[in-house]
Amino acid sequence: MSATTNLALAYNPVFLGIRFLLELFALYCFGLWGWRRVPGPLRYVAVVAVPVVVAIVWGDFATPGDEARSGETMFDTPGPLRLLLEVAVFGGGAAALWHAGVQKGARWFLIVLVLYHVAAYERIWWLLQH
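User: That's the sequence. What structure does it adopt?
Assistant: Structure tokens below.
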């Protein structure tokens, strides 16, 4: 059986679209944090640099064969480590939003993240096994 068959919901095109939007929103949260928390002219650097650095790490470290990410990777990353990275990026996005002064938005983002990952539990299980 292919990973797609086993992880039908996690790899459903609608679910992949939702995941992509969650990823973009997490990057936005890091940028907002940079804008609101970094003082002076450095905020112009932070609003771009922080999300770019997060996106580079996010994109370069992946588990080979993860169909939610095209299956390609620059650095082969064990599944549990990739899951930890995902928790850091998504959770970090919520924490960044909280620190940026948008506590209600951070709570909602966290709720949506938890619901999404509960529904995509098969992919989490797959990552833990690879």
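The radius of gyration is 15 Å.
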